[in-house]
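Troubleshooting: if your tokenizer reports a length mismatch, compare your output against this known-good record of 306 residues.
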Amino acid sequence: METIRPCGCKGIRTCLICEEQFNIPRVEFASDLQKKACFVYCLYCDKAWRGWDSNSYMEHPNHNGESISFPGVYIKPDFLTDAEAASMLTNLDSLRWELSQSGRRKQNYGPKCNFKKRRLRIGDFCGFPGSTKSIQDKLSEVPLLQNFQTVEQCSLEYDPSRGASIDPHIDDCWIWGERIVTVNILGDTVLTMTVYDGKSSRYNLEDVPSYPPVVKESNEGKPFDIVEFQNSQYKKDIVVRLPMPAKSLMVLYGEARYGWEHSVLREDINSRRVCLAYRELTPPYLPNGKNFSESVEILEKARMFW
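Known-good structure output:
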């Protein structure tokens, strides 16, 4: 619906507030997913085991049943200490939160991007809050994130009282690079992965085969090409659930980044969740890239903290 809604939702996006206020029927997405072949990724053995309950990874190493490989995900539990997480939450809550879609609130720091027209502008971007620098410093210590330069940092809040969620999507591939980074500050939750079988023009996925892989293991050092999930027994009818405990770090890359949509279901937000999401630029906008001249000033600002 195109009605202006004070809750922050637009178009097809809804939350509990506008669903009640405007009598918008809710789409039962989670129940449909549970009818498919569902697997839960284990943080400790790097395999996904048959099931839906995201807490089943805690049974490690006593897993039962069928397992599959799921390439392109790295999860580090306890990336933050209790003290670091509590301090960061205080820092984020001292900054201004803005309403966003689907019941979320956000704090966004980065350039202005028009994904349809493929336009990049610095806008009012002047770097990141100094109170969040410690997280970016910790990211630089992770081997998988070698040479990762944050150009967008987004704080996201999910509140169960608002029915907060985020619909299945792939982060834009024209401007955002291979590694999708999330630090979960508060609240255990789960990222739900579903195979993408749409057009390559969506999400600017058609650009991806021209990029050299940043994470070499994602395609043996060759340009990444989107492939169908390796287990043809399930084809498109497969769901992989990635646990995101509080204080953990998650990185998506390679197949998980480009071949799967990710979402956060309303049913998986049982308490306030706060996370920090980080994005890097694609190779054409990095040094020696053909569009580097458009991003020079942005990359300079991205090294600043205020």
